[in-house]
Write a structure and sequence with these properties.
Layout: H1 3-30, H2 40-51, H3 57-85, H4 91-120
Helix pairs in contact: 1-3, 1-4, 3-4
Amino acid sequence: MSQAFDAAVERARLAATDLLAAARQVIAWHSMRPDDARDDVDFAVLSRRITSYAPDWRLDDACEDVDVASRARAEIGSIAATLSGSAPGSGDDAFAAESKAIGRLDALAAECERRARVLRS
């Protein structure tokens, strides 16, 4: 496989892992109890959560994003295994398959990066 394919796989894996970490952090903050608070940031999160009457959409998004990240990681692994394990074919077919895979990996990475930015905003 080419370096472009390897770079696309790595970017997608990192983006999915980052999304999973961001989602787990939001879930942890929303499941925190007053006894769990350790510093001023934790107390600020608790204060905001206790004094706010509006539901926090980020918790719902975070729960959904855990599933999105898990599915993305599975798809990335499948794409990497399929293309890495396939025997090299004719030049045009192999190039087309690799280009299509890179496009899908870039799309997965972009979606995971976008979702992680939304969770952190």
